[in-house]
Amino acid sequence: MKAAVFAARAREQLSFEGLFLLILLVTIALRFYSLDLKLFHHDEAIHAWFSYKLLTEGTYIYDPMYHGPLRYYVTAGMFALFGDSDLVGRLIPALLGTLLVPLLYPIYKLGYLDRKQTLVAALFIAISPNMVYFSRFLRDDPFIIFFTMVLLVALLYYFERHQMRYALIAGTVIGLGISTMENMPIVVLIFGVYLLYLVWARKVRLPGHWIRDLALGALVVFGIMAAFYSSLGAHPEMIMTWWLRAIEHWTAMHQMQRLGGPPYFYMLLFILYEVPILILAVIGTLQFIDIRGSISRWRERKMRHAGTLEEVEGTEESEEGVPEVAAPPTAPQPCGWRDRLREIVSGGGEVRPVDRQKEFARFAIFWMLLSIAAYAYIGEKVPWLILHQLLPMIFVAVYAMTTKKAVIAVAASAFLIVMTLHVAFTPADINEPIVQVQNSEDLREVFAKIDAADKVAVATDSYWPLPWYYRGERASKLSYYSQKVSEPTIYGGDFDLVITHDGDTYPTLEGYVKETSRLNYWFSYEENKERLLEYYFLRDGKSGSRNLEIFSRVPAGTTA
User: How far apart are CA 204 and CA 208, in angstroms?
Assistant: First the structure.
């Protein structure tokens, strides 16, 4: 009796809902625990600074170099509510990264994922090194990934229930996404092309009021974009010009390849951080195209051609002993493309029955491959763009999730957990490509020197993140020259501390003692290219860096 009660309780605790909730709790912990453990990245400091300026001075105008306006307004709002700090700046990205997991549930409820697929997909999103790292990161990409998931759910429900509310939700997240980052149109284009295929192939049917819903959704999109890109009406001229500025800027960046890399750049990152998901996605793709069945059918056709098969499936013997091919099932008569187009516009026509899980896998493979191709082509190669390829890859990885495959996926997740703990929770500089010029923890010592000084000269243009960490009243002690200045200027300014870049500095300054501190750092391929296999397992070696030279004034009566 006791054993039966224990088994019943174990099944209750290990129910689908219980496991899903447990994964959600893990997701929350990994996103929010010690959220300000690391200093702001170079880009985070700039984004937070612009948000702070928007809050304190009410000034903002769109600059494509720094992406869309939504993040600045959202972050400024968070600063207004909870104060301006590193932790507060990262709260919304962490929240959006967390909400990816519960957004899987409605996809499961519609039957596009089964229970095993949903749980493994939730687990991968929860513990993926890139998903965790960039959910703790004040950039646009957590916003775009969240909007992409909401768009996916809204479209699935629209074609399930044909209700206008879901078209309006889709329009809202598209408008918010385009107001966040210039890559949202890539998502919309991929989704749109596949939607056209579904409609044309009679796999979904447009409702009779779809034109109205499309028009209202488009109105929402353009209304949101107009509001944000005009700086809430402060710069109405930007409504008509922002998109042109965005195209000109990012076309130039693509051609310049300011942060360039080979087309397989992101594949290397997948191998470094997401290899279990990558392998399972390859397996999922092969399962979808039924590679084993294809080989078996090819062998069978070869044997038939050689005359080694005596019987052929799909035939039967007539009374005279002559094989007759069985009649194919009756198929609907095809119509011309004009008739089909009229049928689509009117919302009529029969819908073919589809296997929802298989069709969703087909879409995920299409989404994954086009995303990989798009970002392989784009000249700007930065690690956070991997998220837009990783999300569909996770859906492909969980296709045909048998119990055996699920056990393998869970076991392989140990690699993801180890890498997540390493890249997101190491309280020191890490030699990893994921960091992309992360500000060094050595700066904390520089901050301590600045705090102890009354007057500080910053004689270099490599000064971020100082404007963020010394804002408001604390900014008054820093004088920014943005370049090395003459020594009389330094001596005449009576500075307690002088900060320069080690590439353009002073050999000595009389009355000052010099120290070198790392400003920021990155994984250096040149320093590690002779030992890449060893690096893969040890994650050590040398990293590139930019360094500051700190001249501290020697107190009177002492010797430097």
Answer: 13
- Section 176-197 average pLDDT: 96
- pLDDT tens digits, residue range 70-119? 999 999 999 999 999 999 999 999 999 999 999 999 999 999 999 999 99
Q: How far is CA 1 from the centre of its chain?
A: 50
Q: What does the pLDDT read at residue 325?
A: 42
Across 27-31, 41-45, 283-287, 311-315, least confident range: 311-315
Query: How many Cβ atoms are within 10 Å of 258's Cβ, its own excluded?
Result: 12
Cα separation, 514 vs 518, in Å, equals 14
Pull the structure tokens for residue 108: 């499961």
pLDDT of residue 533 exceeding 80, the answer is: yes
Please spell the DSSP secondary structure of 2-37, one letter per residue.
HHHHHHHHHHHHTSHHHHHHHHHHHHHHHHHTTTTS
What strands lie across the sheet with 543-553, from one edge to the other?
A: 438-439, 512-523, 543-553, 497-501, 456-458, 478-480
Distance from C-alpha of 432 to C-alpha of 277, rounded to nearest angstrom:
19
Q: What 3-state class would DSSP assign to 315?
A: strand
User: Exposed/middle/buried for 476, CB within 10 Å: 0-12, 13-18, 19+?
Assistant: exposed
Give the three-class secondary structure for 325: strand
Pairing of strands 438-439, 512-523: antiparallel
Distance CA 444, CA 49 (A): 18
Give the separation between CA 36 and CA 87, rounded to whole angstroms: 5
